[in-house]
Amino acid sequence: MQIASLRQQLIQRFTDSDSAALDADCLLCAVLSCTRTYLRTWPEQELTPEQVAQVEQFAVRREQGEPVAYILGVREFWSLPLQVSPATLIPRPDTEALVEWALTLLSEQGQGQKALDLGTGTGAIALALKSEFPALAMWALEREPAALDLARRNAARLGFSVNFLASNWFSALNERNFQLIVSNPPYIDAADPHLAQGDVRFEPHSALVADEDGLADIRQIIDQAPEYLAAGGWLLLEHGWQQAEAVRDLLSSRGFQAVTTKSDLGGQDRVSGGQWPGDVAG
Ligand code: GLN
């Protein structure tokens, strides 16, 4: 079996996927340990029977809807290869909007800073920040033990030192005076039909779904964050594309200033944040 013909077969089988060609390429590249360019350059190369069998095992899982990231156990975020598992959300390009904003704030504020990532999952946000600011004192909290374990392993493999802590939001955190707190919390409403489609069907509900129209966790974080922020520190939160106004209202009512929203790569409102003015927790 040649690369090009197997690739065509896979694309035809992945009809339920909105990224069939990319999915086929990712599975083939994983089995052949090659790049996408290689697939195009050597379309007539023959796969061994073992390679064909391995592709077939992956293809059956993909046909059943399993995300490519879970099949291969890895997903790239901010150019960092991260291990993923069904214990965590799969890092998404949307979240890079939060990382970009956080990096801008960190570069404005100078060295010697402390930052906190709440519900770190794979560790994606914390590790992206560390990759750009190696001297940053980074804390990352996670409630799910399997996810925390995975985040620790990702940090170790990449050689970044992060203070990981098992904690349900702020519950186990003693550290204070962070210049930056970031989070991609669960924010989807339980009744959202989007939960029955595509990759999210395989992701942990605890990482996706929140009560109160998806705002319960965001509300709790906004309420408690001032106690942990330094004067002038920022809180940045990822949220659903229709939640920006609600999140800005929550930030303003809590006393945050300079409250704004930034959009993701698709142009959707995706991250809102504000600056904590006082040095006394309100
Ligand atoms: N943005 C993701 C989605 O809509 C959800 C991420 C999250 O809940 N934090 O699929």
Automatic annotation (TrEMBL):
* InterPro entries referenced in this protein's UniProt entry, alphabetically: DNA_methylase_N6_adenine_CS, HemK-like, N5-glutamine_MTase, PrmC_N, RF_methyltr_PrmC, SAM-dependent_MTases_sf, Small_mtfrase_dom
Q: Name the catalysed reactions.
A: L-glutaminyl-[peptide chain release factor] + S-adenosyl-L-methionine = N(5)-methyl-L-glutaminyl-[peptide chain release factor] + S-adenosyl-L-homocysteine + H(+)
Which parts of the sequence bind S-adenosyl-L-methionine?
119-123, 142, 169, 184
> What's a Gene Ontology MF term here?
peptide chain release factor N(5)-glutamine methyltransferase activity
Q: Record-annotated residues binding substrate?
A: 184-187
Q: Where is the Release factor glutamine methyltransferase N-terminal domain?
A: 6-73
E.C. designation(s): 2.1.1.297
Looking at the record, the residues that make up the Methyltransferase small domain are: 105-191
Give the matching Gene3D superfamilies: DNA helicase RuvA subunit, C-terminal domain, Vaccinia Virus protein VP39
Keyword entries, A-Z: Methyltransferase, S-adenosyl-L-methionine, Transferase
A biological process (GO) of this protein is: methylation
| UniProt xrefs under PROSITE patterns | N6_MTASE (PS00092)
Tell me, what does this protein do in biology? Methylates the class 1 translation termination release factors RF1/PrfA and RF2/PrfB on the glutamine residue of the universally conserved GGQ motif.
Concerning its family, UniProt says: Belongs to the protein N5-glutamine methyltransferase family. PrmC subfamily.
Enumerate the HAMAP family for this protein.
RF_methyltr_PrmC (MF_02126)
What's the protein name? Release factor glutamine methyltransferase
Q: Tell me the gene name.
A: prmC
